[in-house]
Amino acid sequence: MSDLLTVRGLRKSFGTLEVLRDIGFDVPAGTVTAVIGPSGSGKTTVLRALNALDRADAGVITIGDLAVDFGAPVDRSTLARFRSRTAMVFQSHNLFPHRTVLENVIEGPVIVQRRPRADATADARRLLDQVGLAEKADQYPYQLSGGQQQRVGIARALALDPQLMLFDEPTSALDPELVGDVLRVIKDLATAGRTMVIVTHEIRFAQQVADQVLFVDGGVVAESGPPSRVLVEPERPRTRQFLKRIL
Ligand code: ADP
Question: What number is the ipTM of this complex?
Fold first, then answer.
C-alpha cells in the first residue's frame, strides 16, 4: 500500500525546550496510526506540526503528492494547500456556541472552501447521519452531551474532505460513559478506509483500531509497529514501563 503521509527529521523546540528531536514515520493510505507516549512527550506537537498549526523548525512532511520542507521558507499558497489536506479533531470540540449543529458543520466548506451552501448542507446532513446525529442538525451545541458535541466536531472535520484525519485525544475530555459512542464513530471511519492519526490514551481502543502504534518518547519515535507487538510485547523497557503505568 502506498504511503499517504511520510514524516522525516521533524524537529520542534519551544524556546530552549527541545520537544521533537527527530521524528520520522510513514502512514500508508487507508490505515490508522495511534500515537502514544508519556504526557509532555510531544504527541500533540507532532499532530499540530502535521497540519502546520505550529510549524516545525525542520523536517519534511509529505501528504499525498505534496512535500513541504519546514526547514526552508514555505510560501503561503503551498502552506494553504498543505493545510487543506488534513483536518483536526481536538480534545474538546471548539464548536461555535451561537450556531446550530448544521451551521457548525457547513462553516468550513462554505466560508473557507467557498462551496455552494446547498451542496455543503446536503453533505453536512449526510455526515451528521454518519455520526448518528441526523436529528440534532437544528439544535445548538449546549443542547448536546459532550460526546455528541465531539461527534459534531468529527462531522465538521469530515466536511472539509481531508485526505488525512488527525485526532488529538478525542475522548480525554469526556465522561467515561460518553467515550464509547465517539470511539465507535472513529472505528466506523477506520472500517470505511479513512486514513487517520490518533493521539490517544485509550490503549484498548488503539489495540482494536490501529494498524500501527508509535510510542513517542524523548523527542523521537522510540518504538513502532503493529499493536500486537508494541502494545503486547514491547521491545523497549521505556515502552513497557509506560504501558504498565497506564493499563
Ligand atoms: P503531549 O501531547 O505528549 O502531552 P505536548 O506536545 O502537548 O505533549 O507538549 C510537549 C512539551 O512541549 C511540553 O513540555 C509542553 O509544555 C511543551 N509545549 C507545547 N506547546 C507549547 C507552546 N506553545 N509553548 C511552549 N511550550 C509548549
Answer: 0.98
- Ligand 1: residues with CB < 6 A are 14, 17, 19, 37, 39-45
Q: Whose CA is nearest to atom 13 of ligand 1?
A: 40
Q: Where are the beta strands (DSSP E) in 98-171?
A: 164-168
Q: How many CB atoms lie within 10 A of CB 114?
A: 8
Question: What's the count of helices (H) and strands (E) in the chain, helices before strands?
Answer: 9, 10
Question: Which is the closest atom of ligand 1 to the Cα of 38?
Answer: 3
Distance from the alpha carbon of residue 40 to the mean position of ligand 1, in angstroms = 6
Residues 6+ apart with CB under 8 A from 204: none
Which H or E run includes 89? strand 86-89
The pairing of strands 212-217 and 196-199 is unpaired
* Under-70 pLDDT residues of the chain: none
Q: Which atom of ligand 1 is nearest to the CA of 216?
A: 3
Answer for the pair 166, 197: CB distance below 8 angstroms, yes or no: yes
How far is the first Cα of the chain from the last one, in angstroms, to the nearest whole number? 32
CA atoms of 234 and 199, how far apart (whole Å): 18
Torsion 29-219-35-227 (CA) sign? positive
Predicted structure pTM score: 0.95
Residue 233, classified by CB atoms within 10 Å of its CB into exposed (0-12), middle (13-18) or buried (19+), is exposed
As a whole number of angstroms, the distance between CA 36 and CA 31 comes to 16
pLDDT digits (tens, 9 = 90+) for 120-145: 999 999 999 999 999 999 999 999 99
Q: Are 218 and 21 in contact (CB under 8 A)?
A: yes
* Mutate which of 13, 16, 44, 55 for ligand 1 pocket (most atoms within 8 A of beta carbon): 44
